[in-house]
């Protein structure tokens, strides 16, 4: 006699179906319509979801991502494998110079950390594939170290590069841009998602101005550094690159690689992370490397410090305060901030991927909030589905639906079937 599936098992099945539905053969889109291409950090998270039921497909996801790597080591934030008129700005606006039509910026380098998780599923089967990927990952990390540091912290040159597109961290730097000459354009994102959940036209004018500037300069990193109006030292990038470099070192050592250079990067990034400490806020914070101002944001990126291997007693206090204001984890901006908007992208919503990374760091430091955050994320997805992001006040789903990385986080980490793993 067959037993009925539990609600958790039903969610497991739904999550696997989402990954398969968004699979375009070697790469996965975040969700149909809104995001029709391969996105960098979305793809890395997709890999750990696939690894729960198809390890070979998981490796293929990461390998396809690195097939778009530029000669300078940069791995683009979007690979435009198949043209799609439903997205703007497309490759013809970006004018990327890589082997595959692409954007001209990168995204948070979670790939090494996710690859290590995939490798842990079957170390023997994955060893050769990781050995091939290792020098490519090193080259990407080196690109960050060569072109994105300010006092050891990792900077972004476009809000999209951080993955937190409209976070308040960039407000001061965005205000310094006068987007003259942008011209007329038609956004596609607001045809798929309510505009109240997306960045404003004010934001988009500046996003496109920065893209046009990069394209005009041929994405020459040295040229782009000259008189740049936008360069922000970012907790997201700094903490994620630090964690990913630690993971790359661990895998390199198991492969018999020389990791001396990478160990030096860890030292540099650890020092750089301290330059993101805002003493007035009592929190890690974004820092405008051009204008010099602090963002003044207690964001979910602030709490990636433990994920990067950095503890701070004041951060424990900040975390307790923020989690008391949110039923479902760590919001992208603390709800008591005047700029908070519970449904507008990175100005308030909760994101499952950020909850996962924060919780993993907390659990590695044996801090009790880690288990609570994992449980909160499981409840959020179980109750409200696989949305792109969620309102932290009531869990209301927002943004895109049937979202790849939310399904991947469920399968690899949040599902009750993984709670003991």
Task: Report on this structure.
The protein is globular. A hairpin with a 2-residue loop joins strand 3 and strand 4. The chain has a four-stranded antiparallel sheet. Strands 1-2 form a two-stranded antiparallel sheet. The mean pLDDT is 95. It is mainly alpha-helical. The chain has one domain (7-414): Glycosyltransferase, CATH 1.50.10.10. Helix 3 (55-66) runs antiparallel to helix 5, helix 3 (55-66) packs parallel to helix 6 and helix 5 (111-121) runs antiparallel to helix 6. The chain has 16 helices and ten strands. It is 46% helix and 5% strand.
Sum this structure up briefly.
By secondary structure, the chain is mainly alpha-helical. The protein contains 16 helices and 10 strands.
């Amino acid at each position: 006699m067959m037993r009925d599936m539990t609600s958790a098992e039903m969610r497991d099945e739904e999550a696997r179906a989402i990954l398969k539905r968004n699979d375009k053969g070697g790469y996965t889109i975040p969700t149909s319509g809104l995001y029709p291409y391969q996105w960098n950090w979305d793809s890395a998270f997709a890999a750990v979801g696939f690894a729960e039921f198809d390890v070979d497909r998981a490796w293929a996801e990461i390998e396809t991502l690195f097939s778009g790597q530029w000669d300078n080591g940069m791995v683009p934030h979007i690979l435009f494998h198949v043209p799609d008129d439903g997205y703007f700005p497309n490759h013809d606006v970006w004018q990327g110079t890589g082997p595959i039509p692409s954007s001209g910026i990168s995204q948070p380098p979670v790939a090494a950390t996710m690859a290590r998780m995939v490798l842990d599923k079957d170390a023997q089967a994955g060893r050769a594939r990781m050995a091939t990927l290792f020098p490519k990952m090193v080259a990407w990390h080196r690109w960050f170290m060569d072109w994105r540091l300010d006092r050891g912290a990792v900077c972004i040159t476009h809000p999209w590069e951080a993955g937190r597109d409209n976070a308040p961290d960039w407000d001061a730097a965005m205000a310094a841009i006068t987007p003259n000459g942008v011209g007329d354009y038609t956004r596609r994102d607001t045809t798929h998602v309510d505009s109240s959940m997306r960045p404003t036209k004010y934001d988009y004018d500046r996003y496109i101005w920065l893209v046009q500037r990069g394209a005009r300069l041929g994405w020459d990193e040295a040229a782009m550094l000259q008189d740049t109006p936008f360069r922000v030292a970012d907790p997201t990038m700094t903490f994620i690159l630090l964690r990913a470099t630690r993971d790359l070192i661990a895998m390199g050592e198991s492969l018999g690689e020389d990791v001396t250079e990478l160990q030096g990067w860890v030292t540099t990034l650890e020092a750089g992370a301290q330059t993101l400490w805002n003493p007035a806020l009592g929190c890690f914070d974004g820092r405008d490397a051009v204008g010099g101002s602090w963002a003044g944001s207690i964001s979910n990126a602030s709490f990636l410090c433990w994920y990067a291997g950095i503890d701070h007693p004041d951060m424990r206090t900040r975390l307790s305060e923020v989690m008391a204001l949110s039923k479902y984890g760590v919001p992208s901006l603390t709800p008591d901030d005047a700029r908070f908007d519970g449904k507008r992208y990175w100005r308030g919503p909760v994101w499952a991927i950020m909850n996962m990374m924060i919780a993993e760091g907390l659990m590695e430091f044996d801090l009790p909030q880690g288990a609570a955050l994992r449980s909160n994320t499981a409840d959020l997805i179980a109750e409200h589905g696989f949305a792109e992001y969620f309102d932290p006040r009531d869990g209301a789903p927002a943004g895109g639906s049937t979202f790849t990385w939310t399904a991947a986080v469920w399968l690899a980490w949040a599902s009750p079937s993984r709670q003991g793993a």
